Structure formats: structure tokens, C-alpha cells
Amino acid sequence: MEQENVYNLDRNMKVHNFNAGPSVLPNEVLYKASKALIDFEGSGMSILEIGHRTEPFMAVMEEARNLTRELMQLDDDFEVLFLQGGATMQFMQVPMNLLDSGETASYIDTGVWSNKAIKEAKLFGFVDVSASSKEANYNHIPKQYTIATQSKYLHITTNNTIYGTQWNSIPETEVPIVADMSSDILSREMDFNRFALIYAGVQKNMGAAGATMVAVRKSMLGKVSRQIPSILNYKNHIENGSMLNTPPVFAVYITMLTLRWLKGQGGVAAIEQINNKKAALLYDEIDHNPLFRGNVAKEDRSKMNVTFTIDKPELEEEFLKFCKKEDIVGIKGHRLSGGFRASLYNALPLESVEVMVEAMKFFSLKKA
Ligand SMILES: *Cc1c(COP(=O)(O)O)cnc(C)c1O
């Protein structure tokens, strides 16, 4: 019954949403959230009107944390938290909790977001930038680097949302690895237990803006000598079950629904198959269509954010207009890398990519 209503959302269902973030969410999630916004589980109150320490909301938070743990198959040393401040706050919260002054952390610079993380870490200790692809405008993932063994951790950005590159394998190192997975969290199978800390603003691939997922190993904490303000101390959040203060209730609720949806799809392994199909379809068109061109190293191409350019720059605006007419939205490239960017997050249907590819073929023939 409810399953049918899911497709009864009061909006233009034809839109193909390639936004980079915030971005597309499953219809099922939006449908359920819209109901909960009015009346949460028959309580006569909106999800926005109940206390965060009430039984029903505590259950939402628990489920969100447990589903994250389950979908990522995290071992018992990990704690999953939903915090505020975005991935951007993690740029400083990570070194504040893990890096003592005088100590060194290694960072690999693969773009704007890595850079911001590096800048914040320098406020707390020494930063060794082990490798950078800056000189090549971040069009690849560095392959040659050595991580200093005395480093407290190595920080990587697994997917570079702006440039369209992605780490295909986890670096081989004994040093604990910290990863910003904001734009590819839960999009592919990975041994998440190889990491010491994983963070992600949830608004790209696992929920709505306002919450940040942090999965942290308890064994990493309590080692720095500095005083950490209560709200910034991971330990306090763990001890309080991610309820140290009022959490972003609606963002956590949307995240819980998105995680339920993902589990219903068959989990990370199943969504990865679909994500691979979507990316292959679009890259194949980019590689075969004479008008378009990929702009990053093939072996490092992101399956989440596909960046490309048009060979005749004078046609760029026209193509964007054409896409708009075809209900394809969000494909204008980031101002730093130009061209186009199509974000293929978990909730984007394969059909949207098919429509996009058709539009590219049609436009190209028209201009030939
Ligand atoms: C979007 C993004 C961020 C910034 O996230 P906020 O939640 O806005 O702070 C950081 N890192 C990556 C990889 C991103 O894609």
C-alpha cells in the first residue's frame, strides 16, 4: 500500500537531479519524511515537535547508528556518531582529538577539500604533505609517496567531489588512516576496518544537510595532552550516545530513512553494482562522443562525480540550456574546474544517466 504512495510525491517526477550536494534522495525517503513532518508515527506531533530524549527519537538515533555500523561492517572498536558542523568541522576536530602539538600527521593533497583539512591541521601540530596533485590541477590521485612512520595518522579524501577523482584502493601503510568520505560514503564496498576514523557530511550520499557522520576507533582517543572543549571531544559524544546536546533531529531522521532504503536495496555491495553501471554508461559516452572529453586520469575516475568538458567551449552554455529543457539539472561544473559535472550518488536512478547519455548523443549529432 504505502509502497505505491511513494511515487505519489507532489512534484515534477521527470527531473533528473545530478546535483553535487545537497543532492538527490530516494522518493521513498522523501515520502516518509513528509509524513513524519506532519505526524510522527501516529503521535499527533511532528518529528520536529518531540524531545530528542524521548523514546521515539532515541530509537531513530540508535537505528541510524546501528545501520551505519551494519552497512559498513564496522568492528567493535568503532563508534558511530552524528555530529553538527559539517565535514568542514571535522577538518579541525580530527587533529584536535588525534594530533598533539609537536606531533606530525601526514596528508595527501588531492584538491580543495584536502587543502582545507591541511590548513586546519596545521593549527594543532605539524603537517607533512606526503604527496599532491596540485601541479596537474588535481587531475589524478598521486601514486608515489612515502608516509613517515612516526606520523600519528594519514589523512586522505577518498573522493574528490570537485575534480572528479577517487581513490581506487586504500593506501598501504601501518599508519592509522583518517578519511573524508563525504562524497562516496556507502557507495562501494571497502574494508572500512582498515581506517581509524571516517567522516562524511551526510548531505551527499546518506541523508540531508545538518548532520555529519563520524565513525571513530575508541582506541585512537584520549592520547593528546591538550584540553579539548566538551562539545569537540569525541569521547564526550561517545559517552552520551551522540546525544551530548540536541542533535540535528530531522537530518538524522532523513539519514536513518536513507540507510533503511540502502539496506532494502541490498546494501553497499548491491548499490555498488548499480553505481558501476551508471558510471560506465556515462564515461563510455564521454569517451565515444566526439564532442565531449573526460578531464581526469582514467584510472582515477570518480564513480560519484563525473567531470567532463565540451570540445567547443562556445557550445557550453547551449548544452546546459539543452539539458535544462530535458529536465536534466545540476550538471554545471564547479567554478574551479569548469566544464560539466554529473554527480551519480546512490539515490540517482540508472534511468537518469540513460536520459543524460541520450541528451549528449542528440546534442552532438545536432552540432555535427
Ligand atoms: C562537500 C564536501 C565537504 C564539505 O562538507 P560540509 O558538510 O559542507 O562541511 C568536505 N569534503 C568533501 C570531500 C566534500 O565533498
Automatic annotation (TrEMBL):
Residue span, Aminotransferase class V domain: 16-354
Cofactor comment: Binds 1 pyridoxal phosphate per subunit.
Pfam families according to UniProt: Aminotran_5
Keywords assigned by UniProt, alphabetized: Amino-acid biosynthesis, Aminotransferase, Cytoplasm, Pyridoxal phosphate, Pyridoxine biosynthesis, Serine biosynthesis, Transferase
Reaction catalyzed: O-phospho-L-serine + 2-oxoglutarate = 3-phosphooxypyruvate + L-glutamate; 4-(phosphooxy)-L-threonine + 2-oxoglutarate = (R)-3-hydroxy-2-oxo-4-phosphooxybutanoate + L-glutamate
Pathway entry: Cofactor biosynthesis; pyridoxine 5'-phosphate biosynthesis; pyridoxine 5'-phosphate from D-erythrose 4-phosphate: step 3/5; Amino-acid biosynthesis; L-serine biosynthesis; L-serine from 3-phospho-D-glycerate: step 2/3
GO molecular function per UniProt: O-phospho-L-serine:2-oxoglutarate aminotransferase activity
Record organism: Chitinophaga pollutisoli
Residue numbers binding pyridoxal 5'-phosphate: A87, T88, W113, T161, D180, Q203, N245, T246
Family statement: Belongs to the class-V pyridoxal-phosphate-dependent aminotransferase family. SerC subfamily.
Chief place of localization: cytoplasm
Modified residues (N6-(pyridoxal phosphate)lysine): K204
The protein's Enzyme Commission number: 2.6.1.52
Function noted in UniProt: Catalyzes the reversible conversion of 3-phosphohydroxypyruvate to phosphoserine and of 3-hydroxy-2-oxo-4-phosphonooxybutanoate to phosphohydroxythreonine.
UniProt: L-glutamate binding residues: R53
InterPro entries documented for this protein: Aminotrans_V_dom, Pser_aminoTfrase, PyrdxlP-dep_Trfase, PyrdxlP-dep_Trfase_major, PyrdxlP-dep_Trfase_small
Protein name: Phosphoserine aminotransferase
Origin: domain of life: Bacteria
NCBIfam families: PRK05355.1, serC_1
